[in-house]
Design goal:
Helix content: 40-55%
Number of helices: 11
Largest sheet: 6 strands, parallel
Distance between the termini: 43 Å
Radius of gyration: 19 Å
Strand order of the largest sheet: 2-1-3-4-5-6
Number of domains: 1
Bound molecules: NADP nicotinamide-adenine-dinucleotide phosphate
Oligomer: single chain
Number of strands: 6
CATH architecture: 3-Layer(aba) Sandwich
Strand content: 5-15%
Order of helices and strands: EHEHEHHEHEHHEHHHH
Shape: globular
CATH superfamily: NAD(P)-binding Rossmann-like Domain
């Protein structure tokens, strides 16, 4: 969707980030600002239709980026016991915001999740990754279930771009960074997964949004990387001497309430689209090396 005013003339893009106090929202805002683009944030509750419509009316964005969502604290286990609150944000709220944007002719990018799949016989870790049209097959957590259901509906809105992130990684050791999490666990499983290095992918989200792209995209770096591979790179580049202990999926199941998704996503659709804009996303092992080198250069240990 092009940014046009009510009378059809082109106007400058104005970006509005929903969930303005969130972790990914903060990174996105900084990136927009570094690109010299007009960006606003809001913390209006997505499920409050009147307030959402009033906010869209007030800010008059050409693009909304929805980085709001209920992820649970300290983790998704929270969603198991707080189902109504989780639905109000992740289902009612996400759909309401998309719908309000639709009726106002605003492009809406949704920061969704790829944690809606699990490895199966047709998709082993060393086999083909899941493509965007594969039906979800992971409902082991209420969080993932809400996200998968919403995707099935929201994909029919012609103003929505749905980006499936997985295990996002920032260049710092913020508590929400996947690396920070697994480096602090007493024991960690060791399974290859698709991951999203934010420094590589957030610029791509802006590129896709401002070009009016719509539809679903697996939004990770190409390939899959295991926990031990991540932690080995972390030890070798960022924190010499770092050690960790592994445990099995069966042992992990005893200390978590909701199951966790493990899967590889196929990124062909994303990389092909981004190539049209001359943008490349590094393979996940290379991306981690570069990410940890940036951490090291910033003096982070
Ligand atoms: N971090 C990950 O591992 C990960 C992975 C894949 C996808 N994602 C998705 O990416 C999005 C952003 O994640 P994040 O890591 O940045 O999470 P975050 O730090 O928890 O930020 C989410 C923000 O959304 C707000 N929010 C929650 N429900 C809302 C509602 N109904 N209306 C308005 N705002 C609401 C929260 O505010 P309150 O705290 O006040 O509720 C919070 O500020 C989420 O949709 C998440 O599901 C995250």
């Amino acid at each position: 969707m092009a940014a046009t005013s009510a009378n059809g003339t082109a106007r400058a893009s104005r970006f509005l980030i929903w969930g303005g106090e969130g972790w990914i929202a903060g990174h996105l805002k900084t990136l927009f600002e570094s690109q010299g683009k007009e960006v606003h944030t809001t913390t209006i509750r997505m499920e409050n239709r009147e307030a959402v419509l009033a906010e869209l009316e007030r800010v008059q964005p050409s693009h909304v980026l929805n980085a709001a969502g209920c992820t649970g604290r300290p983790n998704v286990d929270w969603c198991e016991d707080n189902r109504e609150a989780t639905m109000r944000s992740n289902v009612i709220g996400t759909l309401n915001l998309a719908d309000c944007c639709y009726i106002k002719g605003i492009h809406c990018t949704v920061f969704a999740t790829g944690c809606i799949y699990k490895y199966d016989a047709a998709h082993p870790w060393d086999g083909p990754g899941y493509v965007e049209t594969d039906p979800s097959n992971f409902d082991g957590s209420f969080y993932s279930m809400t996200k998968a259901h919403v995707e099935e509906i929201i994909k029919h809105y012609n103003n929505c771009l749905v980006l499936r992130l997985r295990m996002p990684v920032s260049d710092d050791l913020h508590p929400r960074n996947f690396v920070t999490k697994i480096s602090k666990y007493e024991r960690v499983v060791d399974i290859p997964n698709s991951n999203t290095i934010l420094t590589d992918l957030l610029p791509a989200s802006i590129l896709l949004a401002e070009h009016g792209e719509v539809g679903i995209y697996n939004f990770t770096n190409p390939g899959a990387i295991s926990h031990n591979e991540v932690l080995t790179l972390f030890r070798d580049i960022v924190r010499p001497g770092f050690t960790w202990k592994n445990f099995s999926l069966e042992e992990q199941a005893k200390v978590i309430k909701a199951d966790r998704s493990n899967c590889k996503l196929d990124t062909t659709k994303l990389t092909t689209k981004l190539a049209e804009y001359g943008y490349e996303v590094p393979e996940i092992h290379d991306a981690y090396s570069q990410c940890f080198e940036r951490m090291k250069a910033a003096g982070i240990q």
